[in-house]
User: Which sequence fits this backbone?
C-alpha cells in the first residue's frame, strides 16, 4: 500500500512548527525520524496527515551538560545517543538501551523525542525515562512546560502531550558516583521489540525499577523498589510480579511476561553487584 | 516565514554523484522516488514498514530505510544506491565475495545487504561474526540462511584490514 499525506511543510524553528501545527488543526502531525510514522502512513494506519517536518530544527538536536543533568534534544538520533560520551558517562542506561532498539539503519534516523512521543509500550526509551526520573520538555502555543516522565506516559501510544505541543527535549539527572544503571530484556531476535524488559537504577537515594512491554505504559515498580531498598531480592521479585498486570497477545502470554520480569530483575540485581541497599 | 503546506514538494539532491531536481508528492517515500522517477530499481520496495531491509540505501553517509524516509525529506541529501556503488567500484570486492561464497541466490535482498554491510565495514577493523549478524539483523534473506553472507562480509573485512583471506 502507499501513503497518502495531506501535505508537507518544513519547519525552520519551534515557533514556526507550532504555527504550522495550529494551521493544520486536527490533521497536523509532527514528522521526526519517521521510523514509526512513515511506516504507519505506508500501511494507511495514518491517512491525510499534514506533516510538519521538524528535522531541520538544529536547536532540537544534541546533548548538553546543564550541571546536575543532561539535556538531550528531541531530534538526537538513537545512533547518536548510543555513542555520545556525556550520555555514556552520566546516563549509561540510555547507551545500553540503544543496543536493544531496532536495527542499525533505523537507529540512524529514529529520534529519542520521537520514541518518547510515540510511546510504544514495548519501547526502551520511555522506560529508561521513568527509571531515571527524567523530565520531558514540551512547547506549545501557551509556552513551555516540563512533565515528569512518571506522569508523561498515559497508555498505549498515549502521552500527556497535547496535540498542539512539541516535545523539545528530555533531561535526565546525572548518575551519582556509585550509581549503577542496567537494562535487561528478552526479545526473539536482536533488534525486535522486547517481549518484556526491565531497567534497574541503584543510586544513593534508593532503587528504581521500570518495566516495559508488560502493560500499556512503562510501570514504575514501587513495591519491588522498596523491597530492594530493604535488601530483599526474593521479596522484590514477588512484589514485582504482583504489581504487574501484563497483557496476553500473539507475542507472549501474561504469565510468561510476569515470569520473565522476575527473571530479568534477578539478572539485573546480579549484574549491579549484589543485593544493594 | 511561509505557513504553507504543499502536496508536491520541490527537492534538489545528489543521487549517485549526479545532481537531481524533482517535484515529489508529499507522501512518496525515497525508494519509490528512486525506482519510479529515476529508474534506479536496485533498492527494493518490499515490506514498506522498515522490517525487511530490502530498501536500504545510503543517505549522507549512513545506511537508512528507503521506505521510511520521505523523498521530500531528501532535499539537499547525498544519496547512494547499489547502482552508484557498483559504478564507483568501491564495493566490487564485497560483491565478488557475495558471488564466491554463494551469499545470494534470488538476489532480492542483496542491494540492501550490500549497503548495510558497507555501513559496518566503513568502521574499519574486522568485526566479530556476532557483530556482523547484529548489524545485518534488520535485513531479511529468505534464500541463504545468512551463514554465507556473514562469511562474505567477514572475508572482505579481513582483506580490507590487510589480514589476507580467511
Ligand atoms: C522494524 C522496526 C523496529 C523497531 N524496533 C524498535 C525497538 O525495538 N524499540 C524501540 O523503542 N523502537 C523501535 N522502533 C521504533 C523506532 O525507535 C522509532 O524511531 C521511534 O519509535 C519513533 O521515533 P521517530 O523519530 O522515528 O518518530 P516519527 O516516526 O517521526 O514519529 C512517531 C510519532 O511521534 C510523534 N513525534 C515525533 N517527534 C515528536 C516531537 N518531537 N514532538 C511531538 N511529537 C513527536 C509523531 O507525530 C508520530 O506520531 C522500530 C521501528 C522499526 C521500523
Assistant:
Amino acid at each position: 500500500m502507499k501513503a497518502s499525506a495531506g501535505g508537507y511543510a518544513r519547519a525552520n524553528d519551534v515557533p514556526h512548527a507550532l504555527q504550522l501545527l495550529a494551521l493544520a488543526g486536527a490533521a497536523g502531525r509532527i514528522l521526526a525520524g519517521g521510523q514509526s510514522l512513515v511506516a504507519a502512513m505506508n500501511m494507511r494506519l495514518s491517512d491525510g496527515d499534514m506533516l510538519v517536518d521538524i528535522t531541520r530544527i538544529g536547536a532540537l538536536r544534541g546533548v548538553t551538560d546543564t550541571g546536575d543533568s543532561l539535556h538531550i534534544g528531541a531530534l538526537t538520533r538513537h545512533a547518536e545517543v548510543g555513542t555520545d560520551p556525556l550520555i555514556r558517562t552520566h546516563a549509561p542506561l540510555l547507551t545500553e538501551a540503544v543496543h536493544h532498539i531496532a536495527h542499525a539503519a533505523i537507529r540512524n534516523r529514529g529520534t529519542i523525542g520521537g520514541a518518547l512521543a510515540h510511546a510504544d509500550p514495548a519501547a526502551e526509551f520511555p522506560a529508561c525515562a521513568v527509571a531515571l526520573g527524567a523530565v520531558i520538555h514540551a512547547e506549545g502555543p501557551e509556552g513551555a512546560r516540563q512533565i515528569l516522565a512518571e506522569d508523561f506516559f498515559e497508555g498505549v501510544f498515549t502521552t500527556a502531550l497535547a496535540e498542539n505541543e512539541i516535545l523539545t527535549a528530555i533531561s535526565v539527572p546525572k548518575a551519582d558516583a556509585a550509581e549503577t544503571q542496567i537494562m535487561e530484556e528478552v526479545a526473539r531476535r536482536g533488534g525486535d521489540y522486547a517481549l518484556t524488559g526491565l531497567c534497574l537504577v541503584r543510586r544513593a537515594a534508593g532503587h528504581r525499577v521500570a518495566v516495559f512491554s508488560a502493560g500499556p505504559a512503562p510501570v514504575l515498580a514501587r513495591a519491588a523498589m522498596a523491597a530492594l531498598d530493604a535488601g530483599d531480592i526474593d521479596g522484590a521479585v514477588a512484589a514485582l510480579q504482583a504489581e504487574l498486570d501484563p497483557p496476553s497477545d500473539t507475542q507472549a502470554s501474561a504469565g510468561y511476561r510476569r515470569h520473565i520480569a522476575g527473571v530479568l530483575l534477578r539478572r539485573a540485581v546480579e549484574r549491579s553487584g549484589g543485593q544493594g541497599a | 516565514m511561509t505557513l504553507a503546506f504543499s502536496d508536491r514538494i520541490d527537492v534538489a539532491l545528489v543521487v549517485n554523484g549526479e545532481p537531481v531536481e524533482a517535484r515529489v508528492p508529499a507522501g512518496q517515500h525515497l525508494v519509490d522516488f528512486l525506482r519510479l522517477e529515476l529508474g534506479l530499481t536496485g533498492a527494493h520496495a518490499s515490506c514498506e514498514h522498515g522490517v525487511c531491509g530490502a530498501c536500504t540505501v545510503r543517505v549522507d553517509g549512513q545506511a537508512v530505510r528507503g521506505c521510511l524516509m520521505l523523498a521530500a525529506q531528501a532535499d539537499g541529501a547525498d544519496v547512494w544506491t547499489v547502482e552508484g556503488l557498483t559504478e564507483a567500484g568501491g564495493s566490487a570486492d564485497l560483491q565478488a565475495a557475495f558471488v564466491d561464497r554463494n551469499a545470494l541466490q534470488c538476489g532480492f535482498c542483496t542491494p540492501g545487504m550490500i549497503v548495510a554491510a558497507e555501513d559496518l565495514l566503513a568502521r574499519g577493523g574486522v568485526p566479530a561474526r556476532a557483530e556482523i549478524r547484529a548489524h545485518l539483523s534488520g535485513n531479511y534473506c529468505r534464500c541463504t540462511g545468512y551463514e554465507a553472507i556473514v562469511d562474505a562480509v567477514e572475508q572482505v573485512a579481513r582483506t580490507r584490514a590487510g589480514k589476507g583471506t580467511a
